[in-house]
User: Fold these one by one.
Assistant:
Number 1:
Amino acid sequence: MTESTPTTAAQQMFGEIAPKLADLSDNLLFGDIWERPQLSKRDRSLITCAAIVAMGKTDQMNTHFPRAIRNGVTQEELVEMITHMAFYAGWPSAVTAALRAKDIFGKKPE
């Protein structure tokens, strides 16, 4: 990358080790798929977060839960989605997601 080229999150996270994956993330996933008008970014975020919970991809929650909030999904809606997913994706996936959400949202342990 040149000094004048903006560095994207994908480029920063894994561009050095997987430049094509970073390019696809930037240009295809976030440049095309996320910009399609058939679903709002809010809806895409909620769907993405549900898929991440279902697959148990907790590291991805660090990126996609805050993105969902920026796209208009509330913390309460994310927690409700996690609760709903317990019955479709499994109890352990939902509990793990709830614990990660607690960390992401900055809630103090009780």
Number 2:
Amino acid sequence: MSNRRYLAVAGTLIVLAAWQVAGTTGILGPAIAPPSAILGGLMEDGLAFYNLHLPVTLASAAAGFFWGNLAAIGCAALVLTVPAVEKLVLQMGIASACIPLIAIAPILAACFNGPVTSAIMAAVSVFFTTLVGTLNGLRHADPVCADLVRAYGGGRYLVLRKVQLLYALPNILTALKIAVPAALLGTVIGEFMGQERGLGAALVVAQQSSDVVRTWGITLVCSVLAGGVFLLVAAVERFATPWAAGTESEARA
């Protein structure tokens, strides 16, 4: 194990120890639950509690993640093939990133049912990040390869499919990694709006009943879930774009 890893482990242990002391003594107030109590609460709630809420959140987050990223990639491809719409698409992306989620959640909740609201919130959360990452990747495609496709009679769409999307794939997958926690956050916020099931709905109930331990437990589950899916997308990135990993290593060296 390298010195950097030793330092990371030591730092984590120090933070956990300080957290345990602060939660046990109550020096920072009653809202800080110690890690031991949080783990005990997770075991007490068990699968019966989380099986009721976790699948709902996962389904909404997955739907929003899929459609939001698909729309972002499609809009980026549209900008490359029809440059006249670039200003409109970028304005839409900036608007989706600037509007506070908590402000549009009540409006969406009044128009749609619970899971649909959460899925839309997740889609809005991921749109701008993937749009910018995809556009950046598409614009950095090798012009020599694009000229070669054009020399053989290919048009804009063939250049996009054969050259630009391939070059943009590392950027797209990097954007998808960043979009994972954003999609989960959007889903949880959407579930605040009167939904009966889902981690966000359970979090609201725990807060209203002043159940500090369960509130921290749900937050921990959300964090672990986001981290796990992030690592999954990272593994797909390494498998799908091995040349990008090699280039990054050479650049660091």
